[in-house]
Design a protein that fits this description.
Shape: globular
Mean pLDDT: 76
CATH architecture of the largest domain: Sandwich
Structural class: alpha+beta
Strand content: 35-45%
Helix content: 10-25%
Largest sheet: 7 strands, antiparallel
Distance between the termini: 25 Å
Number of domains: 2
Low-confidence stretches: 1-40
Length: about 160
């Protein structure tokens, strides 16, 4: 989800668009040069298109993408759902967590064995101590805890680097 409010002036947007046009032009030039050398395929919207490497980008095994809407939904508590996106071999994982308005984690959420990284995508997340609006990043070290809740509802991207 995209936050309702984006803070930018018309000049900021025009400056960004100008930079994007410059980058597109540079990439078109780079793409033509690379194509002549046989290193890349046709450009799409000004971005170089990589040759197929057995279905993996850049020939790297394990490159994965998943739409949140396609992720399975697991209700962990009433009004709190997890959508697992990825799990690594070492137990690391990434997920989207949705909290309905008025929902609250049952008990304490203890971060073990490692830290928890949270980005508030939409709404306002409350950790039991303070409110964190959309656009906030939270690092919770291993051994820390909180009580996830939201009065108005929120969507979080959560990453556990150590499982």
């Amino acid at each position: 989800m995209i936050p309702d409010k984006i803070s930018a002036t018309g000049a900021d947007i025009e400056k960004t668009m100008g930079m994007t046009r410059d980058m597109d032009r540079d990439m078109d030039t780079d793409t033509r040069g690379a194509s002549e050398a046989g290193a890349t395929a046709t450009a799409v919207n000004g971005a170089p298109r990589l040759p197929s490497q057995g279905g993996a980008v850049g020939g790297t095994a394990g490159y994965l993408h998943r739409a949140v809407a396609d992720a399975p939904v697991q209700e962990v508590f009433p009004g709190i759902r997890c959508r697992p996106l990825w799990t690594g071999e070492n137990g690391a994982s990434a997920m989207v967590v949705e909290l309905d308005p008025g929902s609250c984690w049952e008990g304490v959420d203890l971060h073990e064995p490692g830290p928890e990284e949270v980005f508030v995508v939409d709404g306002v997340f409350h950790d039991g101590d303070r409110a964190h609006p959309a656009g906030t990043f939270i690092h919770a070290p291993a051994g820390s805890w909180h009580i996830p809740q939201s009065a108005q509802g929120c969507t979080l991207f959560v990453f556990y680097p150590e499982g």
